[in-house]
Model the fold of this input.
Amino acid sequence: MEAGRCRPPPRCPPGVEERPFRSASGAPLALRRRQHSASCRELALRRPRLQLRSLSAVTSAVWLAAYGVFVLSENSMVLSAAIFITLIGLIIYLHFVKIDQESLLVIGSLGIQVTSSYASGKESTTFIEMSRVKDVVINEAIHMQKVIYYLCILLKDPQDPQGVSEVVPLFQSSQPRLDCLMEVYKSCQEILDQRKEAPQSSGIK
Done:
């Protein structure tokens, strides 16, 4: 490939739509939408992966600082401790902190599955039965003197049909802006509306 020529963006598989968005902090996001069926839709928000350049810069800075202390103190334990702390910190960051993708699988007949995929490959999944879902809404909150928007699932109160027992926030790591949240909200509402209309249509003879 000639120098200075950019590679074309990767094409999405058939049935998959991907659009670029921004997070509340301005970081790039990609919303990937996959239509499995009329009542099953998957929505995934992907964040930029960890750059090797950034990782190398942090590691080099820690090790250079440790080497400087070693030169002054002539204690070899300083270098060993720096290597050990760097490796442990990297494992914790990749396995528990750095989330590459947050996805939402909405199945009208079953429920909503929320999955967080970490940089290490670990996945954390939560499934909410559709019988417990009251609605999916966009809420607003004030953070650091700024109004931020977030998508959340309202869970029904078993003792009060009109009440809400719990609010489950979504995409807490990605923190997409309102325009991206609106796309996800519309997709969720399309399936929820189908579920609400199903009992009415089944009762018509």
Remarks:
- Residues 1-9 have pLDDT under 50 and may be disordered.
- The radius of gyration is 23 Å.
- The beta strands are 16-22, 28-37, 40-46, 99-107, 111-118, 123-129, 133-143, 146-157, 160-169.
- The longest helix spans residues 178-202.
